[in-house]
Each structure stands twice: as structure tokens, then as C-alpha cells.
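Input chain follows. Return C-alpha cells only.
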Amino acid sequence: MKDPRPCSIADALALVGEKHSLLVLREVCLGNERFDQLVRNIGAPRDVLATRLRRLVEAGVLEKVTYSERPQRFLYRPTPAGLELEPVLMTLMAWGDRHLRGENDRPMVLEHACGHELVPVVTCSTCGDPVRHDDLTAHPQAPGWTTAGPVAQSPVGPPTVP
């Protein structure tokens, strides 16, 4: 079997695609930085949570800061890379509110600094327009790949597109 498509989404999911990892990010972005707060608010087993925290720290998504020497205790804070994931969480939350919960069953509402409820929208950084599926064109950059999949290898001559 040929290797799967090279993909930054797959790479990101390998790090943060597990449920408890995203919930850790939710909590630290809400300001809950202590292990006991994370355990309580996420509901993950302590060993699972410790493993996720270690991995997020190793990847540079969170930083571990000592707040007590005896006993040794730590805070977990988002790094700039971790804060870059916050819009992903906001968009995922908005999708869950719309498609899984409904307008009257939202567990949390985010208020923007302007005083209004935040409704996250992905926009183009150049023109500022909202991004819609029909406005996108994919340009695969990985050698040997098209949007349809891997390029068929010809036994003689250059690769051919299926």
C-alpha cells in the first residue's frame, strides 16, 4: 500500500486530534492552568491527562511553569502556538452549537471585546471576504500527488495523471 496523502491536517490531528488534547486547550485558554482544575473540568483519568499534557508541552503548544516547589506543582499555559489553535476551538464550538446542540442549548457563549457575541468566521487575509467552499481551489504541493490522489507511475517515462 502506498503512503497516505501528505497532509498538514493529519499532522495536526496526530498531536491535537485526540479529544482530551483539545479539551486541555479549551481549559487553558479559559484560564484553568492547574492540573486539578484540568482533571475536574475535563473528566479525563489523571494518567491520560498527564500523558496529553506532556505531549502538548513537548510539542511547544503548552508551557509548564512551576508555581510551587514543595510539593512541586505546575501551571500549564498556552504558548503562541497554542493560542493559534484557539480560533480552531471557537469554530469547532460554533459548529457543535449549530449542528449538535441547537441555539437554545449552548453551554457557553463567547463575548468579543466589542461587547457582542462572537460568531467565528474564517476570512481571507488578503481580501477580507468570508471563505466559502465554492471559492477555494486546492493546489497540491506534495510531489506525486494531485487532488484526486497519487499520480500513477508509468513503468517508462514520466508520471501520468489518472
